[in-house]
Amino acid sequence: MSFEVIENVFTINADMVMTVAMAAVLLLIGYFVKSKVHFLEKYCIPAPVVGGFLFMFITWAGHSTGAFAFSFTTTLQSFFMLAFFTTVGLGASLSLLKKGGILLVVYWLVAGVVSIIQNTIGVALSAVTGLEPAYALLSSAITMIGGHGAGAAYGSTFEGMGYPAGTLVGAAAATFGLISSVMVGGPVARRLIEKHDLRPDDSENFDTSVTEINAATGEALTGLDVMKNVTAILVSMALGTLVSGWIGKLIGMDFPTYVGAMFVAMIVRNVNEKTRWYKFDYPLVEGIGDVTLGLYLSMALMTLKLWDLAGLAGPMFIVLACQVLFLVLFAYFVVFRILGKNYDAAVMCAGLLGHGLGATPTAIVNLTAVNERYGMSRRAMMIVPIVGAFLVDIIYQPATVWFIKMFVPNLNA
C-alpha cells in the first residue's frame, strides 16, 4: 500500500494483497452487520453486498468532497470468479445433472425471452423519451444480462459508430443493474416462499441423492488429500481457460473463461468417480467455492464507483427503472408459475433476477442467501449457473446484434 497526492486528491493505492485483505474484512463486516440487522436477514440481502455497500459510500464521500480516493489492484478478482465456477462444476455429478431435465430447458428459454423483452423495452422507451437507441440498448440486455464486460465491449463498439458516451453509459448501466439485482432477488424469493408457504421439495429424494453423492467420506483428510483437491480445481481452471479460448476462436466471439472451467471441472469430477484418481471431498470444495464467491463479490462491489450513477438522470434512468420493474413483476407473476410454483421455482426467480439484471455470480449470491434462510434448492444451484453463465448467450447475443442492426444508425458510416 502506498499514499500519494494525485491532482490535489489524497490517493490510497492498495496493492493486490491489500485489496484482497480489504475485501475479506468487508465480507466479515457484512456477515456481522447482517446478523445484527433483522431487516437484512429477513429479506435475504447477501453479506458481501452489505459490506461492499458500506465501503461504496465511503469512496463516494471521498469523491464528492475531493478529500481522498482509493486505487485498487483487482488482479485476483477474475481468479476468484473462475475458481468459484470451477467448484460449481466439481459439484455436478452426471447423476445430478440428469435431474435438471426439462426444467433446465424451460429456464433457459425463459431467460432468453427475458433478454428479447428487455431489448424491446429499451427500443420502445427510446422512441418515447428521445434517448438514442444505442444508449437505450446499452441500458437493456447488453448490461442487464452481459454485465460490465458486455457493457464495455458494446460501449466501445457504439463509440466507433459515433456515440461518444458508449463506454460510460455501459459502465453506469451495468453498475445500476448489479446493485439492483442483489437488492431485489432475495426479497422477491422471500415473498413467494412466505406467501405460498413453500419448503424444499424432497418428493423425488433429490436432496437425499445429493447428500449421498456429495457426502464427506467421514475420514480425516491428509495434507496430500487437500492438495489433490486444490490441484484439481487449479488444473480445471487452467484447462478451462484454454478450452474457452479455443471455442471463442471457433465461433468468432468472446467465450467466458469461467464457462470452460466449469465444464472441464464437470468432466474431471465424473471421470474421477470412475477412476478414483484422488479422494474427492465435496465439503472442502464447496467451502473453497463459498470463500472465493464471497471475495469476488465483495471486491467487485467495493471497487464500484457509485458516482457513475450520477449520469443516469432522465431518459436513461427511466429505461433502467423499467427494466428492473419489468423483471421483478415478470419473475413474480409469470416465471414462478412457469417453473412449477414450488420452492425450486421461487429460488430460481431469485437467480433470474441476479443474472437478468446483474451477473451470474450475483445470481449465485442471491440463491445462497435464500438457501441459507429457507433450505437448499439443489435444482436452482445446478441450473441457474449453467444458464446464466453460457446458455442464455446463445439467445441473447444474436438477438442483441439484430436489434443493433435494426435500430442503431451508424453515424460514422
Protein model, in words:
By secondary structure, the protein is mainly alpha-helical. The chain has one domain. The protein is 75% helix and 4% strand. The chain has a 3-stranded mixed sheet with strand order 1-2-3. Helix 12 (223-251) packs across helix 13 and helix 16 packs parallel to helix 18 (378-407). The longest helix is centred in the middle third of the chain and has 31 residues, at 166-196. Residues 205-213 have low confidence and may be disordered.
How many discrete domains? 1
Residue runs with pLDDT of under 50 for 5 or more positions: 205-213
Shape: globular
- Number of distinct helices: 18
Layout of helices and strands:
Layout: E1 2-6, E2 9-14, H1 16-36, H2 38-42, H3 47-65, E3 68-72, H4 77-90, H5 94-97, H6 101-129, H7 133-138, H8 141-144, H9 147-160, H10 166-196, H11 206-213, H12 223-251, H13 257-275, H14 282-302, H15 315-338, H16 343-357, H17 360-374, H18 378-407
Parallel strand pairs: 2-3
Antiparallel strand pairs: 1-2
Helix pairs in contact: 1-3, 1-14, 3-14, 4-12, 4-13, 4-14, 6-15, 6-18, 9-10, 10-15, 10-16, 10-17, 12-13, 14-17, 15-16, 16-17, 16-18, 17-18
